[in-house]
Amino acid sequence: MSYISGGLSMLKSVEQSLPASEKKIAQYILSSPESVITMTVKELSEKSSTSSAAVIRLCKSLDLKGFQELKMRIAGDVQKPSTLEYRDIDKGESSHHIIEQMTHNGIQMLKETDEMLRREDVDQAVNEIHHAGAVHIFGVGASGLVAYDAQQKFLRAGRYAFYLQDSHLSYTSLSNASSTDVAIVISFSGETKEAVQFMKLAKKNNVKTISITKYGSSTLSQMADIPLYTSATEEAMIRSAATSSRLAQLHVIDVLFMTYVSNYYDEVIESLDRSRAAIDHKQ
Questions:
Q1: pTM: predicted TM-score of the whole model, two decimal places
Q2: Could you tell me the end-to-end alpha-carbon distance of the chain, in angstroms, rounded to an integer?
Q3: Which of 164, 234, 247, 255 could cross-link to 169 by cystine, CB 3.0-4.6 Å?
């Protein structure tokens, strides 16, 4: 990307959960984003009838470095061409329209996820995975499919990574984890009961934790040492299908894996060659 963006998506994602003063600022920005780009903190606080302190608190609520980053992201949003919104699939739609809409939803979710992922957090997560004695991965339902994908990728890369489908077995395994281990917990909402329990157990055992959740404050993202975010857009279609959100989670895993491969290329290639040879029936 030639510019950073995502400020407006971030504000829309957390708007309803913000305290009153921060909510007023968010609503003002969303109603007039172009004008905010050139404002100071004081000017924005006056325009939104709040205070400079509330503007600073809003930036912290968005998990941004400061008002300057928020303005840069909004400026990036203003430069982007407008896009279609997510749309539900109606009864009796043609396969042509379904293909078109699902493709659009997936692309939009990936673009928004790109905006939510902080590069420094990805680099830190990859570094922790590389130095981990073991990588414990947890997810339930559709997030479990993502956890399984992460397991097979990092196993092939030479990491001792595992995902256990039975949550009780996952808790048992994690209860014997070392403080040198890493736990990756995946949940779109960040509130899945089993995932929160897994995170609590990891923290109790002093295991380094990485969360993959939708953008915004959640139990998992607040507890994690390294929170990674996907787009927070709620899918219009039946939530149990977890279509675009699952795609976004898989994208984050792919980003982690490919960054890991790039950073530790020589040793990963050796591991990939060994794993390929091990399953090659011609050997």
A1: 0.81
A2: 44
A3: 164
